[in-house]
Amino acid sequence: MAEKPILELSTLVPDRPIIKIDGQSYEMAVYEDLSFKDEALLKKAGRMLVEASKAEDPTNEQFDELAQLVNRSLRVVVPGIPDDVFHKLPDGHKVQILMAFTRAARRTILSPPSETGATKNSNRRTSVKSSRSSKGSTAGGRKTGS
Question: With a threshold of 0.85, does the pTM exceed it?
């Protein structure tokens, strides 16, 4: 009986999403490109964007810190943007690019395993919760993606 892999990894360079700025195409990073540090940076920027949108009276210091985080995050997400193009981007465009990356990363992370049951991405993450309601039972198995 042939064994079905539970994980299938590839070291090939993945297809990268493309964004266009003033008609010029730039490749975005993919989730697999992120280091732990990059991922933490992007999460912190996301949290700060949410907090700033809810704050009644954010301080100039909070806006400055947010702008720095967004700029650093954008360099991670689209590393090939030349400085002159980067500096022309208004904050709203930078946030849109980060949101596009987040949507693409979520599709990668949450996409279902292949037909063989193998995971195709090397760093795909899902939220795995085991069912502990019945001792030793595997009925219902594990839930992913929620």
Answer: no
